[in-house]
Amino acid sequence: MHASPRSGGGVGGRRPWGRRAAAVVALISPAAMVALAGAALAGDLAIALLAVALVMAASGATWFALTRRGPRRVAGAALAALATAGLVVTVATHWQGLLVLLGLLALLAVFGLAARYALVGPATAQTAATAFLPVGAAGSAVLIINLKSGGGKAERFDLAAEARRRGIEPIVLCPGDDLQELADDAIARGADVVGMAGGDGSQALVATVAARREVAHVCIPAGTRNHFALDLGLNRDDVIGALDAYTDGIERVIDLARVNDRVFVNNASLGVYAKVVQSDAYRDAKLETWTSLLPELLGPDADPIDLQFTTDDGSICDDAPLVLVSNNPYQLTQMAGAGTRERLDTGTLGVVAARVRSASDVSKLVALELVGQAGRFPGLLSWSTDEFELRSSGPVEVGLDGEALVLQPPLRFVSLPGALRVRLPPGAGVAPAARAVALTSDNLGALLRVAGGR
Q: How far is residue 292's CA from residue 289's CA, in Å, rounded to a whole number?
């Protein structure tokens, strides 16, 4: 990739000396963090250990309270409150430690920003240049709108009128309508671009039709969380701006995934989460539903969740209360990008299974998270694959892109590489996972090479 004269000679519009300076700053930050932490611990090692112990005690007691009923829940909640109060008192009476913590967080932020500038910017520019294809205005465009999604976002932004101003035919989803039939009919009438303004479950249904009929899909983030839009690099707060994908957009090809005969754009959740979202009360009272159901799902007397699968090393797992299968792997090791996917075009599924069943498990996980090593928790399994099978003796509850379903086993998951063409507005960026730079030996080596001018 050749730099333009305006870019100053740097890849992706960044000057070489700017990248080198950023790499030097990023390399200094971890050393400063070690020095600051060492100086703090030299004088207050006992206080630091006490704070960590209180955090672990509070997390373990909270888990105990959530997974018990009656007096035991009250006792667990009381212990969690006492541990939290003790932590507050410890921090308040040793405020120097709080300043050290704030300093460490500031240095970590400096590392993230400087390393991102040095390493991620050029790579992102190269990826965008090869993966995004500029396209003109859509010839015949349709936008299906769910007025109720996202608390009525489409109505608040008068999305139908905005679509008409751009020559896009709006189709309002009415009660009883079949979303896939609406998309199919629109394409049969000549639409070469079909979009969906709604949540991720609706996006998946329209994307299924667009992929099958080989037309481009537009995602308008008018749902509640819009995880698909986030990983496409869209600004989830700019609902109207997303319409520019129809008039002056860019196009890229991404994967879809399928479980049995259902296509999804984000993920399929199985186990505890899937069972909770099946509850009729979940939509209106999420917290109350969780606290009501967790004791019977994860408490000491809970029946094992009937899910079985083969891990990447060939062993059989049948004791994971939470399983997540995603269309491309989620980032799990970096706080800045946790819960997002770096890419949507790897042609693979991401599989994550968590074995967390006791207060001690939670405490171990929290302790590892405190030192940035949550990925080392022995109860966490994660790998990527192009297909995955989950077995059960009866129907399996699934949260598919946030929608509650019940499917017959075995559940066969497959990746559908390059299945969907998506149009995006010109300003679309990348997912948080693609912008994050973890403090790892590989990244430190890359920063050293950049700082050395290589």
A: 5
Among the ranges given (138-142, 321-325, 426-430), the one the predictor scored with the smallest mean pLDDT: 426-430
**Average pLDDT of 179-202?**
96
CA-to-CA distance for 412 and 295, rounded, in angstroms?
Answer: 30
Structure tokens given for 394:
């009866």
* pLDDT top residue among 453 and 5: 453
Rounded to two decimals, the pTM is: 0.78
The average pLDDT across 159-171 equals 96
Dump the DSSP string for 104-115: HHHHHHHHHHHH
Half-sphere exposure of 207 (CA within 13 A, CB side): 32
Strands 216-221 vs 193-198: parallel, antiparallel or unpaired = parallel
Query: Which is it for the CA torsion 338, 344, 346, 347, positive or negative?
Result: positive
Using one digit for the tens of pLDDT, what is the confidence trace for 271-302? 887 877 777 666 666 666 667 766 666 677 77
58, 83 Cβ separation under 8 angstroms? yes
Which residue has tokens 């408490």? 299
The reply to whether omega before 432 is within 30° of 0 (cis) is no
CB 421 within 8 A of CB 216: yes
User: What value, to the nearest 5°, has the Cα angle with vertex 256 and ends 253 and 257?
Assistant: 160
Q: What are phi and psi of 420, to 5 degrees?
A: -130, 135
Radius of gyration of the chain (CA): 24
Tokens of 366: 């929290």
